[in-house]
Amino acid sequence: MTSTSGGRLVCVGTGMLLGGHLSPRARVEIERADAVYAAVSDGLVELWLRELNPAFHSLQPHYVEGRPRTQTYEAMVQTLLDGVHAGQRVCGAFYGHPGVFAWVPHEAVRRARSLGYSARLEPGISAEDCLYADLGIDPGRFGCQHYEASQFMLFRRRIDTGAYLILWQPGVAGDRSTARFSTGADYRRLLVEVLRRDYPSDHPLTLYRAATLALEQPRMIRLRLAELPEAVVTLADTLVIPPLTPLQPDLAIRARLDQLELLQQATDDPA
Ligand SMILES: C[S@@+](CC[C@H](N)C(=O)[O-])C[C@H]1O[C@@H](n2cnc3c(N)ncnc32)[C@H](O)[C@@H]1O
After folding, report:
1. Is there a domain that residue 270 lies in?
2. Please, which pLDDT band fits residue 123 given cuts at 50, 70 and 90?
3. Which domain holds residue 192?
4. How far does residue 14's CA lie from ligand 1's centre (Å)?
5. Which of 33, 45, 71, 129 is the most exposed place for a label (fewest CB within 10 A)?
6. Domain identity same for 21 and 119
7. 52-79 pLDDT per residue, tens
8. DSSP 126-186
9. Count of beta carbons in the 10 Å neighbourhood of residue 167
10. Mean pLDDT over residues 13-37, rounded?
11. What letter would DSSP give residue 60?
């Protein structure tokens, strides 16, 4: 099905740093939109976006403590789609990357496309990108596992302790109502219990928060696993757990690779 109304949707990432991370392509989408709907990190970012395009609307009022985030997110998707149905060129602006731990942009694009509209995501610099730079982590060195903290608690996972483990939204870890802006020490105690299946209580962790203003420094709080329940954890923090165990060589696969290399040599050099 192809829509004839002319409505279209692009969800862009504004990056983490106010004014410093916006890609030229994302900027053009914001500037040329008939309407910009934004879910960004603070009021200053909203002011800056309004300068780029006066047809700016904040999605922030949809967030109300006590209202399940599922309802909030559904309302945001509807707002974006209403503009598209009305024939507008709609830009959804989301902090970080619009496709990283962000349900609304994915869902809005999915629904718009299913109705025949042109819709896509435009990538941005996410908290993950800042984390690699600020903490000096190369995800390719030992590998890197990313989970949403509540999902990590609610479902059994097989953790590779030879790789990094990154938990997103630890500030609301264990919140099944999806209606709270923070969960407390008791919830994090349970998170620690889950982590204790794989890590000792003195394993080092970092609570990480990327800078969102040029004059700010990233916040990197080092602590031990046992100290996590009493730590101050905000909605903007990400929990970084470094590897515990060395990489384990897979001797069987190495032996098979030896055989393949011998075969390859024989094929390359038949004499
Ligand atoms: C709904 S996700 C949004 C992520 C965003 N789309 C991105 O690309 O980074 C919210 C989570 O992102 C992480 N986050 C948000 N702001 C952050 C910051 N300034 N520094 C580190 N992590 C952050 C936290 O784990 C937070 O709970």
Report:
1. no
2. very high
3. 128-241
4. 12
5. 71
6. yes
7. 999 999 999 998 888 898 999 999 999 9
8. -HHHHHHHHHT--HHHH-EEEEEHHHHHHS-----TTSEEEEE-GGGTT-TTS--S---HH
9. 23
10. 97
11. G
- Catalytic machinery residues: 69, 73, 95
Query: Which CATH number belongs to the domain containing residue 217 in this structure?
Result: 3.30.950.10
Cα–Cα distance measured from residue 35 to residue 31, given in angstroms and rounded to the nearest whole number: 9
d(CA 230, CA 227): 6
Task: State if pTM tops 0.70.
Answer: yes
| Pocket test residue of 16, 126, 213 for ligand 1, highest count of atoms within 8 A of CB | 16
Counting ligand 1 atoms within 8 A of each CB, the residue from 191, 209, 212 with the most, and so the one to mutate, is: 209
Per-residue pLDDT tens digits for 144-196:
999 999 999 999 999 999 999 999 999 999 999 888 888 999 999 999 999 99
What's the domain count of the chain? 2
Q: How far apart are CA 70 and CA 140, in angstroms?
A: 34
More confident residue, 42 or 106: 106
List, chain by chain if needed, residues with CB within 6 Å of any ligand 1 atom.
16, 96-97, 100-102, 126-127, 168-169, 171, 208-210, 212, 235-236, 238
Q: Look at ligand 1, atom 4, and give the residue with the nearest C-alpha.
A: 101
Packed helices 69-85 and 103-114: angle between N→C axes, nearest 10 degrees: 40
The amino acid sitting at 33 is: A
